[in-house]
Structures are given as C-alpha cells and as structure tokens.
C-alpha cells in the first residue's frame, strides 16, 4: 500500500520474471566425428545455446534492378528479393553453410505493474504488461511480405506492406512473387525485436452499495473496463507483438475489448 487515507488509497503490485537456460546435451551423438555432440538443426536445438534460437540466413539488404543490369546480382536472385549473407564466401547461398544463429525468439525478461486508486466509492485499476527482448518473425508483421503459393494458407493484409517495386526501390519488404521453388529456396526473413510495453487493462468501478440498500440487495458495484488499450513497441513492424502466432498463422491479433459489468448480491 503506497498511500492510505480516509477517502483515498493507492496500491501497487509489481512482478518480474526471467528465464535463463542452456542446452547441455540432446542425443549424445557425434555423426560427423568432429569431437563434439551434434546439434539438432531441424528443431533449432544447439549445444551450449538457449532454447528458442533463431537459425536462418542473415538479411543484408535488397537486390536492385541496377545489380541485375550490372550483372553483379548473385545467381538465383532477382531484383526485389533480399540480399543474404554469403557466410562461407563461396559465391552462392546454401542452407548448410550460410545459415547462422541470429538471436533468440524468447524474451530476456518480463514485467508487469498494477496500480489501483480508490477514492470514496470509486476504484480505478491500471495494469501494464511488458515483454523485453527476443526477436521474432512469425508474429504479425514479418513473414507476411512474401506473397506466393507457399504462403497462401496464411492471412495477409497486403495493402499495409511497403513492397519493393522498380519505382519503390527503398521499400523494406521484398517484391510480390510468384509460386516458384527457387523463390522459396532463397527466401530470407527479417527478424524484429518485439520488445513492448502494453497498457493491458483499465477498469473503473463504482461501489453502489450505499445507494442500493433495499430489496435485500447489497455489495452492488458497476464497472467499466477495456482490455488491450495501447502498446509501445519501438522496433516492431506490424500488429500486436504479443499475439501468440500472429496473423501469419491463421490466428488473429489481440482484440481491444470493452466491458460493462453490474455485480450485486442478495
């Protein structure tokens, strides 16, 4: 309790959590005979790393029409597709040699703060929720820029994305593509820091017990609340970064919900 007076009270509650882990062993096999236990790359499990590692190509830019005209574009690429880091320097992009650990999808820490203010018969509750750290691609704004037959099962809001075109070479997202295995083979993904602070809930309650003291009614209260009020995510592009699997996996973003509730006891 921060403040408690006759007609006014202010109470706060704070929560903080973090998770630190390291993979020590997985299958205990060394199939390549390099003296170290093998990672399970297909499941993004790497010895000595945390769960949730992001293993992918590193996006370094966007191929432009001038690269094609000057014949400096990498084989298999086309203008309007991501430039990917050739990690081993062999002049081509291969999944075995050019993918790397880019970060982790799990947050560094979480925190929440609840403040409750009471004045006479009124009570105002404010709940703030925050996730800090962790990169992701599957939430709302990152994977959807690709529009071809490989992602037709996903839900898109195409007009909001700034796609590359010859007249829009500075766009952050690649061109709209057609269905081709080559396009899927060289697909890179931009990962965004999904750190956010969200005003999760506001609730205003009025205690009507003193006004309604007839007919056996007591402990009456009227409350109005709103969930998912607003959020601040400085590095995120897209909708709500808290959404579990985002709109790209056939789910929907968090909804802003308004409620009016009347509680009373006989």
Structural notes for this entry:
The protein has 266 residues and is mainly beta. It has a domain at 3-18 and 106-138 and 194-265. It is 5% helix and 34% strand. It has helices spanning 65-69, 95-98, 181-185; strands spanning 3-4, 8-17, 53-56, 59-62, 82-84, 100-104, 109-119, 122-132, 135-136, 192-193, 196-207, 218-232, 257-265. Strands 1-2-7-8-11-12-13 form a seven-stranded antiparallel sheet, with no helix packed on it. The longest helix is centred in the N-terminal third of the chain and has 5 residues, at 65-69. The protein is elongated and about 85 Å long. Residues 138-144, 150-157 and 245-249 have low confidence and may be disordered.
Query: What is the tally of helical segments?
Result: 3
Order of strands across the main sheet: 1-2-7-8-11-12-13
Q: Uncertain runs with pLDDT below 50, 5 residues or more?
A: 138-144, 150-157, 245-249
Task: Give the radius of gyration.
Answer: 26 Å
What is the residue-mean pLDDT, rounded to a whole number?
Answer: 81
The major β-sheet equals: 7 strands, antiparallel
Question: Shape from CA axes?
Answer: elongated
- Find the count of extended strands (DSSP E, 2+ residues): 13
């Amino acid at each position: 309790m921060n403040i408690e007076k006759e007609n006014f009270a202010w109470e706060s509650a704070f929560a903080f959590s973090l998770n630190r882990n390291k993979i020590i062993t997985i299958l205990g096999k060394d199939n390549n005979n390099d003296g170290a236990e093998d990672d399970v790359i297909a499941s993004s499990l790497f010895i000595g790393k945390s769960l949730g590692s992001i293993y992918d190509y590193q996006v370094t830019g966007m191929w432009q029409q001038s690269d094609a005209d000057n014949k400096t574009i990498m084989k298999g690429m086309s203008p309007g597709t991501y430039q990917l880091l050739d990690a081993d320097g062999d002049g081509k992009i291969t999944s075995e040699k050019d993918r790397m650990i880019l970060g982790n999808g799990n947050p560094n820490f979480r925190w929440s703060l609840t403040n409750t203010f009471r004045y006479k018969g009124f009570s105002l509750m404010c709940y703030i929720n925050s996730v800090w750290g962790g990169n992701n691609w599957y939430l709302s704004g990152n994977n959807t820029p690709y529009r071809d037959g490989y992602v037709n099962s996903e839900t898109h809001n195409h007009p909001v994305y700034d796609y590359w075109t010859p007249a829009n070479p500075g766009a952050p997202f690649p061109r709209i593509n057609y269905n081709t295995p080559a396009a899927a083979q060289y697909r890179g993904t931009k990962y965004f820091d999904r750190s956010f602070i969200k005003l999760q809930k506001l609730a205003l309650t009025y205690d009507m017990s003193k006004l309604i003291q007839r007919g056996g009614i007591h402990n009456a209260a009227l409350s109005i609340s709103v969930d998912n009020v607003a959020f601040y995510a400085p590095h995120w592009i897209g909708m709500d970064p808290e959404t579990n699997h985002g709109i790209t996996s056939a789910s929907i973003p968090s909804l802003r919900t308004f409620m009016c509730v009347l509680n009373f006891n006989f």
